[in-house]
Amino acid sequence: MITLLAATGYTGQFVAAELHKHHLSFRIAGRSEDRLQKLAASLEPSPEIIVCDIEKPETLGKAFDGANIILNCAGPFTDLGEPVVREAARRGIHYIDTTGEQNFIKLVFEKCGKEAAEKGAALVPAAAYDYAFGDAAAEIVSRGLDPCDEISIAYNIAGFNTSRGTKKSMLRAVSQQGFLFLDGHVVPSKSGDIKRELEFPDGRRLSGVSFPGGEVIQVPPHVRAKNVITFMAVSATVAGVIGTASAIGGAVRKGASDAIIDRLHRDSLGPDETHRLATKFVIRCEARKGDQRKVLFITGCDPYGITAVSVVALAERLAKEPPQSVGAVSPSMLYGADFIREYTTAAGLQWT
Fold first, then answer.
1. pTM of the prediction?
2. Residue 275 domain boundaries
3. Structure confidence by residue, pLDDT tens digits, 252-290
4. What is the rounded end-to-end Cα distance, in angstroms, of the chain?
5. What are the distances in angstroms from CA 251 to CA 189, 246, 248?
6. Hey, which residues does 185 pair with through a beta bridge?
């Protein structure tokens, strides 16, 4: 049985629809019984509903009872995720989430993986389009170059219309210490510490500005590389703005983020279908070893829709067969990078 937490949130609704599309046995959980009933009524046959409040961990027990897999879409994960993933590890229940927050990914790997491994459970943070596909690309481009001198993953996003939850997670991310993987170690790094020019298939040359991406934590456990660096690929103008991120982060840490997040509770849940489908992305992954290099590009649109596809594809296979790795693992460590390339290609992404 799969339990979907935060099912009535923006991303959660897409995941619920995808679970229903694949005829999987699942339950939907959230704070509002009315919203859960409305969502359940839109799915036939209607899934069981569980009323619980992720901000009150003591109410979560019934969401875990009888579950084999927990899917968590409730962010900011830095604020809300730790009790959920710790309970999954304690009970030996497989766990998948949609976080884009590096510090939460780091927490899962460092504090929860050992107990989950002892119980035979896989904890998979960040199974969304960021950073599951970059993680898979890193495994693929490293073949033949392992161990690599460096793996870099760069994101270029056009027309990104974000949900309320994504805004909240982004604010939490900039309020915390970031990290890169340099000289074989996870080390503190500010956004913009590393800059370089990056070429893209359409002839564009963009500024790569380092930022604390999830692959910094996800890739080293299964791909040998001296350095793993994540970039935002942007125009020179935007690169200058990102270069001030450490100062912005300092301001957010002084308490501004809570006020901003409170304001976001009054905003709409997320972009409409037209704006969602208009969001296009390119993920550029490069592996280098000496003078050798390989580059892989992943292109697609609709990050929220493809996130639902990704989460459900992993959950569906996990429901049918044991994972290849247990403990805290990256998406590629569950069933290999080629599996991720396979289901995303079927959903319309291009890997070149």
1. 0.91
2. 129-303
3. 554 555 554 455 445 557 788 888 889 999 999 999 999
4. 36
5. 17, 9, 5
6. 182
